Amino acid sequence: MEQKSNIVLISDFGRSGQGWLSYMLCYILNAQFVEPYNFLNGKTYSASKDVISLTSGNLPGREKTKYNLVVKTHNYPSAEFNLTDKVIFLVRDPRDVAVSMHNLHLIQEKSVSWNHPRAKLFLTYYKIFSIGDYLRTIKDWAKHYKIWKNVIACQVRYEDLLNDPKKTLVGILNYLEVQANEKIIQEAINEFSFEKITGRKRGEEDKKNPEFRKGISGDHKNKFSKFDMTVINSLFKSVIKKSGYEINR
Asked: Residues in domain Sulfotransferase (predicted)?
């Protein structure tokens, strides 16, 4: 099967701004967003009608590009990978991923009925033994990273997207061989800013909502104890450095 270049595939481990990047690219490319996990369950990918409208691939007064779909995945690549030759591999500091994932787990466990015999046990475990949750996430992240980095792709760091979204998006568009329109790029950045989507300032957290948690980088420095940091460095220092992140002491 020939590779199809009308699909953009965005891969990340999770908790790395994949939805944010996908939304902006859909707006810029006038392409439809496909969230396969919700799609298979018959659920919309956003509660916001505005987000769905702006990522439907049918923007009024806008020309189509050669890309009609932006698809996300957290899965490992297939041994017979042939869906598309345009892949964006989104990477975030695994320590920040671990913090965000831990927060998600706490929210999920709180949503379990307290009549469930294991609910209180799970919640207590996640609160007291957060280091175990952090280590499991970083271990899984490292496996995901090592596999995907061997796929020919445009690697993008969440931190770069956060610090200079315009420059990062222009780089992605160059990879996709799409002429950058600065006006449309800026519109995408504005439409899907953290403040506009959440109604919160960047850094403010809604502890009941796991999506678009804080919109910052380096939050692990606020969450990890010295013990957490020592254990994580002893086990994962090599892969953290190889992925381009500094080691904290």
From this structure: 8-243
